[in-house]
Amino acid sequence: MTQHDLSGPATAAPGPPDPAPPPPGPALHTAAGDKELLSARLVPLRHPGQWASAAALSVLFAMLVNTIVTNRRFQWDVVGDYFVRGSIMHGLELTLWLTAAVMASGYLLGIGVAAMRLSHNPVLRGLAFGFVWLLRSVPPLVQLLFWYELASLYPRLSVGVPFGPEFAHFKTAHLFSGILAAYVGLTLDVAAFSSEIVRGGLLAVDPGQREAARALGMGDGRIFRRIVLPQAMPAIVPASGNLLIGMLKATSIVSVIAVQDLLYSTQLIYTQNFLIMPLLMVATIWYIILTTLLSVGQFYVERYYARGSGRDSRAGRPPARGLWQIARGNLPLFGRTRTDLAGLS
Amino acid sequence: MSAGKSGQRPLVRVRGLRKSYGGTLVLDGIDLDVREGEVTVLLGPSGSGKSTLLRCVNHLEKPDGGFVEIDGEIVGYRQDGARLRELRPRLVTRQRAHVGMVFQQFNLFPHMTVLENITDAPVAVRGLPRKQAVAHARELLARVGLDGREDSYPRQMSGGQQQRVAIARALAMEPRLLLFDEPTSALDPELVGEVLNVMQDLATSGMTMIVVTHEIGFARKVADTVVFLDGGRIVETGPPADVLTAPRHERARAFLTAVL
Ligand SMILES: Nc1ncnc2c1ncn2[C@@H]1O[C@H](COP(=O)(O)OP(=O)(O)OP(=O)(O)O)[C@@H](O)[C@H]1O
Ligand SMILES: [Mg+2]
């Protein structure tokens, strides 16, 4: 509730400048003190608790920054030395393109699986369900090792009719190099999770949209690309951003099969010189930089797909928001957590 | 409009149309003719099958029996001796392009501007050059009283404006037949009139229309034929002057008393 500051100066009154002539009809009841109420200044409720906790958190945060910067054992000079080393750069490159490849093929597969789960064909639906069920159940690390060690399970692969003649066969020993095992395993993992994200997004689109498009004589392919998918995107993008950032870091499990990604490159160095902390900092800072870039990208993608979603904005574009607004939208202070971004999806 | 064309083959012929959902018969042998340039209003209580009938006409719903014929062509099927074989989606799509539909919930595409809503299908489906489609869209917007709104998004418009855009979108395909499923039922009372006016103009210009509505005033003024449905059957049909003022069927009488 808003308190009325009755002692406030009457000159700041926001009330009507002129008393309007009484409207026709039954006379309104007048109570003593109405005049003061009308000329009172509105004082919003203060939130001292929020300010206090914000202050306390700021102090803690300052202490954290202080110790990170001043603790000599972080060895920031070493971090600087290794930050753009050749082998680190190569690892970074591998992390980047492995993530990109895994996400791209995982999503292609995932969209297909989502389409299968939404189809009228019970066999396709069942297969898709089984795929998602199985791949979501198996830890990615196990999958990775499984594909890597596939040769031990099937020393020979052949192409032919099941239980019938075979046309060609080859040895699997070299079929799955570490990098290929990583690519296949993580792709299947992304496919399983992304298919659920995509399916959820597609289900969120009003069926009337599809109907209207059909009534206009559009074909199924066009309806999907032009009508359904763009409207599913606001629901798909945030979850996909999460998956992408998660996958960027999850690619670091390839170190177990000796693929030299960003993290494994730093590990190779610190097993030699024992500068563990500074080298982990190198990897961490790179992950932070990449995640930041991806978050910014996600923001712009979300803004793109939010077009037409606001009533008040000029020419349908959501009001332009800069990076400051992203940052503020993500600050969990003053109860404003993500309020700015919430309106977008 | 004119009653003297009875010898001509009607634009729409519905014969013996049956449809059931999970055992319940929703359409139970519908026979209906709609002549070119005429307005047919479907009336009936909720659940009587009006929407289902309308959706069968452009094959959004597959009938279980009987057929719909538009301009001499069976909708959704191809006659093959004693059989009606279902058409490939591509051919059904082509048939639908000649039948426009306006929905209760407008169903405009919210991620597209008004202009994109109207021009998308003509360009993609009819292969109209973009420039021509845009020019046509502007004409249609003027016709429904919305010139200058091409760059708005649907959510920035009132319900009545959105429904008029939806009508313009349907008209952009230059349909031979327009279907309306309760086009004013989702509107605030003061916005109903602007949509009905546009529909009346269309009727006057000779558009063939099948309209599901509870607006009896519109039926009385604009309809050539009023069809009363109950329980999936047509229980009464005729010119509005007869059906609306002196309904013979008891259900129709009860319904009209309730609506008026
Ligand atoms: N997809 C569906 N699945 C199952 N039943 C349905 C389906 N569509 C319609 N029905 C049923 O068919 C009957 C007729 O529905 P329809 O929508 O045609 O009625 P209506 O006359 O348009 O009613 P209203 O005035 O409420 O719109 C109803 O009993 C409805 O429950
Ligand atoms: Mg209905």
Notes on the protein architecture:
The complex is a heterodimer of chains A (345) and B (260). By secondary structure, chain A is mostly helical. Chain A has a domain at 73-161 and 168-306: MetI-like fold. Helices cover 63% and strands 5% of the residues of chain A. In chain A, the strands form two sheets. In chain A, strands 1-2 form a two-stranded antiparallel sheet. A two-stranded antiparallel ribbon of chain A has the order 3-4. The longest helix of chain A has 32 residues, at 86-117. Chain A starts with a strand and ends with a helix. Chain B has 260 residues and is an alpha/beta fold. Chain B contains nine helices and twelve strands. Chain B has helices spanning 50-57, 89-96, 114-124, 130-143, 159-171, 189-204, 216-222, 240-245, 250-259; strands at 12-21, 24-34, 39-43, 65-70, 73-74, 77-80, 83-86, 99-102, 177-181, 208-212, 225-230, 233-238. Chain B has a six-stranded mixed beta sheet, sandwiched between helices. In chain B, strands 2-1-4-5 form a four-stranded antiparallel beta sheet, covered by helices on one side. Chain B is globular, with a radius of gyration of 18 Å. The chains are: A mainly alpha (345), B alpha/beta (260). At the A-B interface, helix 9 and helix 10 of A face helix 2, strand 8, helix 3 and helix 5 of B. Adenosine-5'-triphosphate (ATP) is lined by residues 21, 26, 44, 46-52 of chain B. Chain A: Residues 14-26 have a biased composition (Pro residues). Chain A: Keywords: Amino-acid transport, Cell membrane, Membrane, Transmembrane, Transmembrane helix, Transport. Chain A: The chain crosses the membrane at residues 51-74, 94-115, 127-148, 235-259, 279-301. Chain A: Belongs to the binding-protein-dependent transport system permease family. Chain A: It holds the Pfam family BPD_transp_1. Chain B: GO terms for molecular function: ATP binding.
